[in-house]
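Morning!

This is the sequence you dropped in the shared folder:
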Amino acid sequence: MKLGFACKYLNADLKQPFPFKATTRKRFLSLNNEERTHLIYELAKNNLVNLFHTLEQLAQLPEDLRMMRIGSDLLPLYTVPEATILYNAFLPDLTPLFIKCGEFAKAHNIRLSFHPGQYSVLASEDESVVMRALEDVEYHALCATLMGYGREFQDFKINIHMNGRKGFAGFKDAFGKLSPEARLMLTVENDEVSCSLDDVLQAKALCPIVLDIHHHWVKENEFIQPDDARIDEIKESWRGVRPVLHYSISQEGLIPEQGFPDQTVLGLSKMKFRSHSDYYFNNTLNDWALSFTDFDIMCEVKMKNLARDRLYAYRNNSGIY
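The structure's back. Tokens below.
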């Protein structure tokens, strides 16, 4: 079981030694063409170099800690039309950095992923929203393919939600419009508001299903178990590749520090429970998450790799796993 973290690598001082840098669309558009090119080239180069430095840190860890989600701002503003044209001109100059990152990750068995934002809605009833979502997924797929992925089923994970009024039918239609590389990498997860696990399982023949156990609890007030029949459906959707689940818990102070929280007893709105904690402070929930032994776990928690490391230490010291 690998334990991963999302986007930001923190040191012991809670600082990011290898941060990604971004800019605003407003600032970018205020510049002339030469200034625009210089700005996004330097930002992208910084981000690729710092991605490599982060991968170097992961390579020094045990193999079951070699898993991370790359931030979506790897190439800042890429999908802004005025930026896309400029990127297309100098992307060949950045390609060696992409290749270096991909080859290093593969050589050290580091599992990588992207997670496009909540506004990438493939199942929207608004066609303009769907087009932007397709562009966003393809941007992430481009980054992954430049690193050498997208050649085999799930050699890289690009995960999205299936929210949108068109539901599975809209998702299926949009999925068919993606490039072959994007289709090989796309996964879909359940969310805590619109799409339940049962909803997203409709897509199991198209792409793998990512189980978010916290989203499921928020939506259903149910702690799904590894022997639930739906877990086998999820695993089957991965077609032999080790599946991934997402693990988070509600913020400190909202749920007890031990035991399974019950929303009806706690009496708070579901919106309150959605926010993620800094650390995994409830070992009852930790045991529950770690009991999904056939899965790798993406730790969605505010203290990133530091919280993940504490969960790893707990797993190793508990004597259970």
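Headline: The chain has a mean pLDDT of 96.

More detail when I'm at my desk.
O.
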